[in-house]
Amino acid sequence: MGKWLLNAIVLGGIRLILKALGGYRRIFEHNPPRTGALIVAPNHISHADPALVAVTIPRRCKYLATDELFTIRFLGRLCTAMGAFPIKQDSPDLGAMRRALGVLKAGEALVAVPEGHESADGALQPLQGGVLMLAQRSGCAVLPVGIAGTDSVVPPRSFRFVRTSTRLVIVYGEAIPWEELSGGLSGRPGLEAARERLGIEIRRLRTKALEYRGAP
Length: 216
Prior knowledge:
The chain is an alpha/beta fold.
């Protein structure tokens, strides 16, 4: 079976599961770039976050995923079929970073959570440096994304499915070129400027997603 067909089948299955769990709504403030290197950076509140991105973004993506998912046979195969590859948490993983940089240099889109870990309370955690370093080294744009509700269908740090009466919501912002995100600065000052700007955008989009989810 071809990879593209397997990917289409997996995404179709994910759509059915998410609809059965309560459904979802996507909102585009701006249309995401359809081509070219791009880092898609959502907030992280559930293992279901990448799945929601996968079925709502209008282009094929690769995914950086925590290595613990690949220790579970079914989930590992599902992640691979989605185009994900593992990265070790809480320790330098130069191999995964090189592979991620290769994805970007090939002009593809990479979904990577800048928080690194799921938030237990939904609040945005401090952004780690890995995703920002990838953007700096590749010079690619970063697309901030706000997600609300996935923690109600798959609670943080668990793989348990729960049906909800309110749809999940995902809001896509505007892709920000690296030069703009970093304020035109290089080195560590550029990384810190990008960290602040990206954090502001993700928080804003997360708040907007919560508002849409609470609206009738």
